[in-house]
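Fold it.
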Amino acid sequence: MELHYNTKHLEGIASEAPPAPATIANPPPMPSFGGYPIPPVVPPTKTGSIAIDIILMKRSHPKAFWVYTALVVGLTALAISSLFADILLFRI
């Protein structure tokens, strides 16, 4: 390994038969969409708690977490406001 680094990567190269590219040192490029790399899918964990799942989502996917949070807050506000409107208008 030292020979390889000392000779500016010219000597000390593995030469097994058949020659194959080094996939560990040179991994294949990540798939991309729109010029941005797509992150690998993380296997789901069995936590058993919704609170822990929400914290893990915020840590793993911050943009998706904030979109989901805004959607839930907006739908909750819409439901509460329509409920109050029904109470005020129709005196249910």
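The longest strand covers residues 32-33.
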